[in-house]
Design brief:
By secondary structure, the protein is mainly β. It has a single domain, classed as Jelly Rolls (Sandwich), CATH 2.60.120. Helix content is about 10%, strand content about 45%. The protein has one helix and nine strands; from the N terminus they run H-E-E-E-E-E-E-E-E-E. Strands 1, 3, 4, 7 and 9 form a five-stranded antiparallel beta sheet that branches. Strands 2-8-5-6 form a four-stranded antiparallel beta sheet, with no helix packed on it. It starts with 8 loop residues before the first helix and ends in a 6-residue tail after the last strand. The relative contact order is 0.31. The N terminus is likely disordered.
């Protein structure tokens, strides 16, 4: 299905996947036991306001108990602490892990490997499905000697009445 030219970005990509799933066509990565369940577009956000100079900190994202959450893409917006200047380079190291301390990378890696910008999101190579009531931990290490404000978002969709994690 082709999307109109003005439709782009994570919302359009999620919309196309959701239309496909609603029509009964499932991508290879979509869990068999979640097929046929209600889905809805969602965004889970986090903030480091500010992330102090040359420090490391963690933010916890709670997946709601009413649904599983499928991450399709991630976005990070970085500004100065006055929120007057948007920065397009992320001098940050990032680690992402879940409540069971399952890390998605073997080391903290440059934030650009995880996150795109609001204009050009980073689509994850394989969508990641988190069960209801788990937490997603995002660790950021500021490599600059200047504090920054970070606002991030995981774009995807909720899967309601998700029976089990495989």
């Amino acid at each position: 299905m082709a999307l109109p030219p003005q439709a782009n970005g994570p919302a359009a990509a999620v919309g196309a996947i959701m239309q496909s799933i609603d029509a009964g066509r499932f991508p290879w990565w979509y869990p068999t036991n979640a097929r046929g369940l209600q889905i809805d577009y969602a965004v889970l956000g986090f903030e480091f306001i500010p992330l102090a100079a040359s420090t490391t900190d963690i933010r916890v994202i709670n997946v709601p108990g009413d649904s599983a959450f499928c991450v399709l893409s991630a976005v990070l917006v970085e500004t100065d602490t006055a929120n007057t200047t948007f920065l397009d380079q992320f001098p940050l190291l990032t680690a992402v892990f879940d409540s069971g301390q399952r890390q998605l990378s073997n080391i903290a890696i440059h934030a650009s490997n995880w996150f795109g910008t609001a204009q050009l999101p980073k689509y994850w190579d394989v969508p990641k499905i988190y069960a209801p009531n788990v937490t997603i931990n995002v660790q950021m290490q500021n490599l600059e000697a200047v504090a920054r404000n970070l606002r991030g978002a995981l774009h995807g969709f909720k899967i309601f009445t998700y029976p089990a994690v495989r």
